[in-house]
Amino acid sequence: MSAALMAIFTTIFASNLPTPLYSFWQAQWGFSSAALTGVFSIYVLGVVTTLLTLGSLSDKLGRRQMMIPGLLFILAGGVAFLLAESIVGLGVARVLTGVGTGIVTGAASAALVELEPDGNWTRAATLSALFFTLGAFAGPTVSSMALRFGAGADVWPFFVVILLSAGAIILMLTAPWPAGVGQRMEGFSLRAWRPTTVKVPRELLGAFIFCAAAICLAWSTGSLYASLGPSLARYLVGIDDRAIAGLFAAAWQLAAGMTQFACQRQPVNRLLIAGPGMLILGLVAMAGAVLTSSPWLFALATLGTAVGAGCTGVVAVASISNVAPPNERGSIISAFYLMAYLTMATVVLSVGFVSDQLGFGKTVLGFTVLISIAAVSLMIVAIRSKRAWIW
What we know:
mainly alpha; 79% helix; globular
């Protein structure tokens, strides 16, 4: 379990590390805001392509056998960031990181559920979500510290990625793996295998759609903070220091992670009301921060949206882990994260494109309205539906 958790942490750490550095690279190399969101989102291309083709492979090849190659892609992405000298180099590094993320996330999340000694899928799902968020917090925190120290801000953080990846691979290779848990399927031949798209059994489609909607709602605000949070803090709220602006993205992830850990013993139906409700309050505070250029309101919005997204994310991850049968768990969880990453790309690219047409401030205000409507809709569906996997 420690090896799987470290694989998740390392992967998400590497994925979120560049967030505060985008404005640094933009000033250094002079590319546009649309290009900035494109570099962030191209990472999703690697994730989505991998989830679509390799999402179910860990069910047959084995969990560990998938996580190790995924970590090698993360390591290669760290090296590519070190060598990047233009926006094209950043794009290559992001794609490599995306491929590694797509390979690791589904396999590691499924492995945690299977390795949990007491069969407590809620605890396993909460641990998975917690280490996702801790990685997302630590990544931008390290790069914000690098910006504060100045020299080598775009160099030494990626040595941390390389060291973490190497350590996770060593732990994965040396950890004693229980017999019969997440092992290679008997009679399976990798030579005979062909890529297949992820799929969800028809009888689980209703539960999957609900869980996917919940994780998409949780990740929508998180993707805004991960890609444009520092820019939002600097240009709309008036925080000039790049390092401090970058820490808002890290603070959002930390608050969301702490919320997920605190919520693991709470009833799912209670979280399903509290999560979207708190998210709406945070979005109202964000709109107020943009209208008044108030750093304090923006800090409140960061806390509110993070707590709301954390609660909603626990509902989504715990519910999908509960309904997914063991022999299809890797495929179903990969499809689940596929929806989350597609939401991330859609939100970021849409905000980047629309802001070029209408302005950044108006776009963020429109975003708060749309996500609030989505949160209300999810609560209405949950209240009207009395499904066992919700209530």
